[in-house]
Design a protein that fits this description.
- The protein contains eight helices and 32 strands.
- The chain is an alpha+beta fold.
- The protein has four domains: 104 residues, RNA Polymerase Alpha Subunit, Chain A, domain 2, CATH 2.170.120.30; 94 residues, Beta Complex (RNA Polymerase Alpha Subunit, Chain A, domain 2), CATH 2.170.120; 86 residues, YbbR-like domain (RNA Polymerase Alpha Subunit, Chain A, domain 2); 106 residues, Beta Complex (RNA Polymerase Alpha Subunit, Chain A, domain 2), CATH 2.170.120.
- The radius of gyration is 49 Å and the shape is elongated.
- The N and C termini lie far apart (143 Å).
- The C terminus is likely disordered.
Length: 456
């Protein structure tokens, strides 16, 4: 193949590839979306360049710039700090700085690009109130602008120690209810408030208070929400100072509204005659008290216990004793009487002593037996109605010794439980004990075994 033919062949092969490149560029230029985006980018770039190079100057405010208040090292050593600026906590106060310069530059400034600070704070070494001039300086790399003014240009600052203290929260809630209901003292969702701020302000607060007037009669427990906690000074005047912080600033108050009821006082008895009901022997003063409880509780309360009386402690001729009134949970004693007086009338009662020589063993452990001396005896004092005491004999007195915890060994002193049988008014006064010996069942003598097992 000649040289000319080879050149023509290469040209023919290269022609389609050239056509493909021209097709891709034409497609790009004909895409409306891509061309629109390129137009915006180009326009913004041109505008930015023109603005930066233009001579346009604007006056622009930069707002919400925090203020730096740096005291001397001597002041800091005394725990002093700037606690308020123009009556506001330092962290809540901000200044505005007006700047002048290129419109693009000043338009992009943020509060962090400028520092506002107080002048001449280094001369302050004691607590007090001071007038301080505010100044501003540039921060960062943006510096092709001028600071025109600071607003405010002068502020009043309080320099003091920041302290915190805690006060109990008192409540003054005025509410009423119908006569058949009882309104209790309001309970608060939080009992104390923590206050903080300048020492000279916080030290004036002597009391924390919430107040409210309820304009309707209450018939059920009611909660008042979001009551403002107020601080009062020694003269009872409210302290309204933004430099003080409070936690909590608001509390809820719950007013208990209860149903009233009058019920009798009753007594519980131990070691008493069987089915004893007090009769003419015992009286209670007061005989009844007024109570209050929630509606779902009050119906189930028909009496209140004035305590428990152990008849083993009631001697003949005893005149009276005091007993604690026991209030059920959730029930209020509206009379505020903590003790009842228990009086005794022994007009129809009579005391008598009996000699007991027979003892009954109960709850004897397997394999054990007990014995007591044949000379063992107890003088038991019994009190009861004269009519029953006249017929009472030693056979009606039962003395038993509980051996449930007994172990083999030498003679031990065991309590004796003495009861009166076949009576509804007689009881045993005093406590009793005697000596017994516990052995293995095969070790006791025949006479002792008969006495022990025969009396079980």
């Amino acid at each position: 193949m000649s040289s000319k033919e080879r050149s023509e062949k290469k040209a023919a092969q290269a022609k389609p590839e050239k056509k493909k490149t021209r097709f891709s560029l034409e497609s790009l230029l004909s895409n409306d979306k891509i061309m629109l985006a390129l137009s915006f980018v180009a326009a913004f770039f041109l505008w930015t360049m023109m603005s930066m190079n233009s001579g346009e100057t604007v006056n622009y405010p930069v707002t919400e710039i925090p203020v730096t208040m740096e005291l001397s090292e001597d002041a800091k050593a005394n725990d002093l700090s700037v606690v308020t600026i123009d009556g506001m906590p330092v962290d809540d106060f901000s200044a505005t700085v007006r700047v002048k310069g290129n419109s693009v530059t000043v338009g992009s400034l943020k509060s962090g690009d400028i520092q506002v600070y107080g002048l001449n704070l280094g001369n302050i070494v004691t607590s007090g109130t001071y007038n301080v001039t505010l100044m501003a300086r540039q921060l960062g790399v943006k510096n092709n602008y001028d600071i025109v003014s600071v607003s405010p240009s002068e502020v009043k600052v309080i320099v003091d120690r920041n302290i915190t203290t805690e006060l109990p929260i008192e409540s003054q809630i005025n509410a009423t209810s119908p006569v058949e209901y009882y309104i209790g003292a309001a309970s608060l969702s939080q009992q104390t408030v923590t206050i903080g701020g300048p020492e000279q302000v916080v030290s004036k607060a002597v009391k924390a208070m919430v107040e409210s007037d309820v304009d309707k009669k209450l018939t059920e427990t009611t909660t008042l929400s979001n009551l403002e906690v107020k601080l009062l000074d020694a003269d009872g005047n409210e302290i309204d100072d933004d430099s003080i912080t409070m936690s909590p600033a608001e509390v809820d108050a719950t007013i208990p509204v209860l149903v009233k009821k009058t019920v009798p006082l009753t007594l519980d008895y131990i070691n008493a005659p069987e089915d004893f009901d007090g009769g003419s022997l015992i009286s209670i003063d007061p005989a009844e008290i007024e109570i209050a409880a929630a509606a779902d509780t009050i119906d189930s309360v028909n009496s209140i216990s004035a305590g428990t009386i152990d008849f083993n402690t009631i001697s003949w001729g005893m005149s009276s004793m005091s007993s604690n009134i026991v209030m059920p949970e959730g029930v209020r004693n509206l009379n505020n009487i903590e003790n009842a007086t228990i009086s005794f009338d022994f007009t129809d009662y009579f005391p008598k002593s009996f000699v007991v020589t027979q003892f009954k063993f109960t709850n004897v452990p397997d394999g054990l037996a007990a014995e007591y001396s044949q000379y063992t005896s107890l003088i038991v004092r019994v009190i009861g109605l004269k009519s029953e005491m006249a017929q009472l004999t030693t056979a009606d007195i039962e003395a038993s010794i509980d051996l449930s915890s007994a172990k083999t060994g030498t003679a031990v002193v065991m309590p004796v439980n003495v009861k009166v049988k076949n009576t509804t008014s007689c009881w045993v006064y005093g406590t009793y004990s005697t000596n017994i010996t516990v052995k293995s069942e095969g070790e006791v003598t025949s006479s002792s075994a008969a006495a022990s097992t025969g009396s079980q």
